[in-house]
Amino acid sequence: MAQIDLSNYNLGELKGLQFDVEQELKERQRHDLRKAREQVLAIVQEAGVSVDQLLGERNQGKGRRKKPDA
User: Fold this and answer.
1) Alpha-carbon span 49 to 10, nearest angstrom
2) DSSP class of residue 64?
3) How many whole angstroms separate alpha carbon 45 and alpha carbon 39?
4) CA gap 26, 23 in Å, rounded
5) From the centroid of its chain, how far is CA 9?
6) Are residues 50 and 44 in contact, defined by beta-carbon separation less than 8 angstroms?
């Protein structure tokens, strides 16, 4: 990655740059999440199952456990 010389920036410019970077990070995270969601949905559709069926298998058996009799 290219090194950026920040020594000539004043405090306000640095804070503005920081804000821009944080916004870009959030947008890229949203984009990556959307992309991953689309990929998962495509795989699920190709397999011929619903998302509920897929997630339901993961959650089976996670109900409340009975306490042992004393």
Assistant:
1) 56
2) P
3) 10
4) 5
5) 33
6) yes
As given in the structure block, the two tokens for residue 44 are: 């699920």
pLDDT digits (tens, 9 = 90+) for 15-63: 999 999 999 999 999 999 999 999 999 999 999 998 888 888 666 666 5
Contact 44, 55 (CB under 8 A): no
Q: Contact 40/50 with Cβ under 8 angstroms? A: no
| Residue 10 CA: distances (Å) to CA of 6, 23, 42, 53, 55 | 9, 20, 48, 55, 51
For residue 2, the one-letter residue type is A
pTM above 0.70, yes or no: no
